[in-house]
Amino acid sequence: MAEKAKNKNLHKAKDSKKDEFYTQLSDIEKELRHYKEHFKDKVVFCNCDDPRVSNFFHYFSYNFENLGLKKLITTCYKNQERDLFSENKSEKAIYLEYNGDKNGNRVPDAEEIGIIHLKGDGDFRSKESIDLLTQADIVVTNPPFSLFREYVAQLVEFDKKFIIVGHQNAITYKEIFKLIKEDKLWLGYGFNGGAGHFINKHYEDYATATDRKEGMIRVSGVTWFTNLEIRKRHEDLELYKSYTPEEFPTYENFNAINIGKTKEIPVNYNGFMGVPITFLDKYNPEQFEIIGLGISSSGTEFGVEPYKAEHKKYRKEIQKRGAVDGDLYMMTNGIVDVPYARIIIKNKRL
């Protein structure tokens, strides 16, 4: 299936608000193993899940004692439409509360899980859900991509720690990028190959034949966002290339050089550099300073020209040249004319 068709499919999911992709248990286990020290004596809240099918609830309930949790709370959005993705068919939204094993078998038995009906629909923005949020220490879930800005804004407002799934394009949202620049949010360890398989009942699987999982949709560019300290964000990016003006051209209307691939950041350049948004997966705030979001089709903080309608004529040429580190661009006379999103950075070590 062509990339255009896959993107159309995701936009369709976003527009219809049916973008609730249930996360695989294996992906949750792979990411959360890096955060175990943060969970001891903490209340974990999963507020965008149907606990009867949620792998987040499964992970935390079965690892409750191992993680040393204090309490697990999971809310379920009420199914108000027949074709809504939620498995909840009851007339009322519910939340589940688990306080750990009581009979010694270290398994979350049904009689050990408290099921409580909510008065409202269980939306994370409802008063009941917010009241539960205030009890929580750490929020872990996969929120709807269409509501990502609003969801993160709520977590920040209530000063919560979190580990959540989102699309890397959210990096270019001004509200999200501001948090990244201010060192209040960063990327986690991520999904294998920068793509995740999610259970989704509305759309067929558009994965390639070599990367297909029955009954799932493959979404490229998904990642984990967090504000919990992890070892990864303090590891240096190893640099090996030397700067030359021929290989690293300067933007026409901003004094920064263009970097095609994160791994090609020159070791000896002291000025501003425009790097792909995928750089944030390797970002160490002790090694680099983020200056701002340089070039974007949705606007810019700088005097670098955003993508314009007249640039459409370059699209065929862009596609022929292919993707560079997840970012398409073309060059004319050695000058980068139509770059897409770039993060402007500076090496702190020089």
TrEMBL record:
Source organism: Flavobacterium restrictum
Record-linked InterPro entries: DNA_methylase_N6_adenine_CS, EcoRI-like_methylase
GO BP, one annotated term: methylation
Keyword Transferase: yes
Coiled coil: none
Keywords, in A-Z order: Methyltransferase, Transferase
Molecular functions per Gene Ontology: methyltransferase activity; nucleic acid binding
Domain of life: Bacteria
UniProt entry tagged with the keyword Signal: no
Protein name as it appears in the record: Modification methylase
